[in-house]
Prior knowledge:
- The chain has 144 residues and is mostly helical.
- Helices cover 57% and strands 4% of the residues.
- A two-stranded antiparallel sheet has the order 1-2.
- α3 (78-101) packs antiparallel against α4.
- The chain starts with 29 loop residues before the first helix and ends with a helix.
Amino acid sequence: MxxxxxxxxxxxxxxxxxxxxxxxxxxxSKWILFAVVLGVYYFVVSGGxxxxxxxxxxxxxxxxxxxxxxPGLHRQLLIEGIVGGALYFIGxxxxxxxxxxxRNIYRPRYSQMMLAVGLVLVLISFFGCQWMINQKLxxxxxxx
Length: 144
């Protein structure tokens, strides 16, 4: 250290910095994370961002009748978003039950029942969504 160009009274400090000990960080349960992911999924597919960014009505009234589906594909009502999200969620549950049926290979009757229930839920979700789109197009032709 004597061959440095600055004066001898300036010296390198001899500090030893210790890392702070936080211990092991605990993550929440995988089921809690799964529930949070499902909540975000439901919010997104039910049109939550659309509801937050536009003023949406719960239902419409036209000609003395209550309309729960907006006439047209470019907008949605609040109840329509909730029902559409519920149909998507039923489809998700159907796919999950179908997946779980593959894990019970040594119980074939139980596995076949789970597969049948899962496929029925997926079909209910699919045809429910198709019915809603068809009704929206029919209303669009009536009121548009």
